[in-house]
Amino acid sequence: MSVAEVDSLLEVASGIVDLVKLGWGTALVSPNLKAKLERYTDAGVPVVLGGTLTEIAIRQGRVEGLVAWMHELGLHHVEISDGTIAIEAPVKRELIERLAREFTVLSEVGSKDAEFIMPPYVWVEQIESDLAAGAWKVIAEARESGTAGIYRASGEVRTGLIEEIAHAVEPERLIFEAPRREQQVWLLKRFGTECNLGNIAPGDVLSLETLRLGLRSDTVERFALGDTGSGGD
Questions:
Q1: What does the pLDDT read at residue 226?
Q2: At what angle do helices 3-13 and 205-213 cross, to 10 degrees?
Q3: Suppose 108 and one of 139, 166, 167, 219 were both cysteines; which one would form an S-S bond, judging by CB atoms 3.0 to 4.6 Å apart?
Q4: Has residue 127 got a pLDDT over 90?
Q5: What are phi and psi of 118, to 5 degrees?
Q6: 111 has pLDDT over 50
């Protein structure tokens, strides 16, 4: 995004954006990075770098440099994932424990590979492990396309998987990536209007807010009469 695009987003949606992610490794090649961060800081919107940067730093043994850079940028959140580069569970757990002393940690569980199907019990084990290590919330992977992780390659919700995860872990501790409208609708109807959703394109932020408030046809019947849907029936 350009600085002008950031200004436009903040003009219309600063009050409903809880966290901005600078996807994968884009922060390293964005010449306007500091200018954008200043805009977000002035608006009181926290920023986190993409988890791919953390994965690369771990693989290259450059975590200290990444941490120093995040401090230099004034960031207070960090994402720790292993969806692109395989990271041993003890290494991820130790890093969460360590960085949780300096940052608000978001961990991510799930692979970006649409062909890789991870059993539900493994999802639950990894999520519980990350939370126990000190993660603030755990992101359920879907990619920016919504075609991996908690979704099938077609974008269809893996309902059984999500139900098993939600049975073991409080949904409030999770952030479900949901780049597609139909995915957002399903999750809001299942978990209620305050369900944590991530990987929302800037141009879709207002659309999502209308879904939450029952101001769009997809959710009018469910939410317009004041039903939060929290029971998940």
A1: 62
A2: 10
A3: 139
A4: yes
A5: -95, 130
A6: yes
Compute how many other C-beta atoms are within 10 angstroms of the C-beta atom of residue 1: 15
Provide the pairing of β-strand 197-198 with 174-177.
parallel
Q: What is the distance of C-alpha 2 from the center of its chain?
A: 21
Lookup result for tokens 């600063």: 14
How far apart CA 165 and CA 140 sit, in angstroms, is: 10
At residue 231, the pLDDT reads 46
pLDDT digits (tens, 9 = 90+) for 141-158: 998 899 999 999 999 999
Q: Is the pLDDT at 230 greater than 60, yes or no?
A: no
* Residue 158, Cβ density class (10 Å: 0-12 exposed, 13-18 middle, ≥19 buried): middle
> Any idea which residue has 């884009």 for tokens?
26
- Per-residue pLDDT at 181 exceeds 90: yes
Helix residue spans in the chain (DSSP H): 3-13, 33-43, 51-60, 63-73, 89-99, 120-133, 159-168, 181-191, 205-213, 217-223
User: With 0-12 CB in 10 A as exposed, 13-18 as middle and 19+ as buried, what is 200?
Assistant: middle
Q: Which DSSP string corresponds to 132-197? A: HHT-SEEEE--TTTT-STTB-TTS-B-HHHHHHHHHHS-GGGEEEE--SHHHHHHHHHHH-TT--E
174: CB partners within 8 A, 6+ apart:
127, 137, 138, 139, 140, 165, 166, 196
